[in-house]
Amino acid sequence: MRPVTSALPSGPGLLPPGRQPLLVIDIGNTSTVLGLTGESGGMVDTWRIRTNREMLPDDLARQVRSLFSMGGHALPRQAVLSSVAPPVGENYAEGLQRRFGMEVFSVSSASLPQVRVELDDPSVVGADRLCNLFGAEKYLRQTGSEYAIVVDFGTSTNFDVIGRGRRFLGGVLATGPQVSADALFTRAAKLPRIALEAPAQAIGRNTVDALKSGLVFGYAEMVDGLLRRLRAELDAPAVTVATGGFSNVLRGICTQVDFYDEGLTLRGLIELWEQKVQEEQEERA
Q1: 20 to 30 A Cα–Cα from 271, which one of 1, 44, 111, 201?
Q2: Element (DSSP H or E) covering residue 202
C-alpha cells in the first residue's frame, strides 16, 4: 500500500480558519450539508439542502449566496468540499471560484496529506469516508484505541475502519435505512409510509408499529452485528462512532456504538483543511 499525498492550492486568500471564515461542504447522494466556521474555527451556521444534479455552477453559486444572505453572513474567501457526486462537486467548485473568487479545495484520495489508504484501489474510496477519517481522530485520542469504526448513515450506510496514523483500512457498504424503507413501501402497495422512529416495543400490535419495529430495531441489530464482526477481525480494541441523521434514531438502541456525532464529517473537513494549511505554511517557511 502507498501513502497518498498532494500539494495544497496556493493563493493570497488561503489562510487558516482561525484567521478567516471557512465554507465547508459535504455533498451526498441525497442531501448536501454546508457549514460556516467563525474566527475561532468553530461552526457558526449550518444548512442541509437536497443534492440537485441538474444545477449548473451559476445555479449553485446563487443558492450559496441566498443561504448566506438568509443567515446574515458575508461570503468567505475559502472553501473545502467533499463530494460523492463528482459532477455536483465540480460545479460547486467552479461556481464558487468564478463568481466569488473563493479558493476551493476538493477532497479526494489523491489530495490528502499523509493518509494511508489500504485498499486494493485507493482511488475508489469516497471523499466523505476520508473526511470521517479525520473526524474520528478526536475519538482515537480520547479513548486511546488503536482503531475507530465510523458508522455513517446516508443513502448508503458506510462502516469505515480507521487505524491510528491516518490509516483507512476498509469497511462495509450497506443499504441506507431510508432506501430500505422506500423499497419496502414501493413493492408492497398496501403498506403505509411511516416515519423512521422506534416503537414502544418490538412486538407490533398494528401494521405501523410492526413496520417501525422491523425498520428501526431490525436495522439496529444489523448495525450491532456488523460492528461485532468488524471488531472481531481487528487485533486491538476499536472505538465506534455513529454519524448522519439516522444515528439520532438509533441512539440508546444500538449496544455496540460508543459515541454519536452528527457533525463528524464537517469537523473532519475542518481538521483536514487546518492540517493541510499548516503543512503548506511549514513548507514555505
Answers
A1: 1
A2: none
